[in-house]
Amino acid sequence: MTKHKTPSSIRCVGCGMEFASSEAFDMHAAGRRRAPLGSPQRCRTETEMRAMGMSQTSGKRWSIARMRP
Asked: What is the pLDDT of residues 10-66, one digit of tens each?
């Protein structure tokens, strides 16, 4: 799973979804980070991302809720 950055979003080449930040992109990945090639890693489903508190903007980009100070 790799990412392709466009001017205002990050698109996953694995699932084609767009993300508003690199943090949101990282949250959509299930499995171990920095795992050896061939290790289980996949993109989360929309249902899984919503359950984690992620939401889609009007531009269909996935984002995470920012915590208030």
From this structure: 898 888 999 998 889 888 888 766 666 666 678 999 999 999 899 998 778 999 876
* Alpha carbon of residue 27 to chain centroid: 5
Instruction: Go through the chain and tell me how many residues it has.
Output: 69
Residue 56 in any domain: the answer is yes
Q: Is residue 69 part of a domain?
A: no
User: What distance in Å separates the CA atoms of residue 67 and residue 40, rounded to the nearest whole number?
Assistant: 30
* pTM value surpassing 0.85: no
Q: Give backbone dihedrals phi and psi of 67, rounded to 5 degrees, phi first.
A: -80, 140
Residue 21, Cβ density class (10 Å: 0-12 exposed, 13-18 middle, ≥19 buried): middle
Number of structural domains in the chain: 1
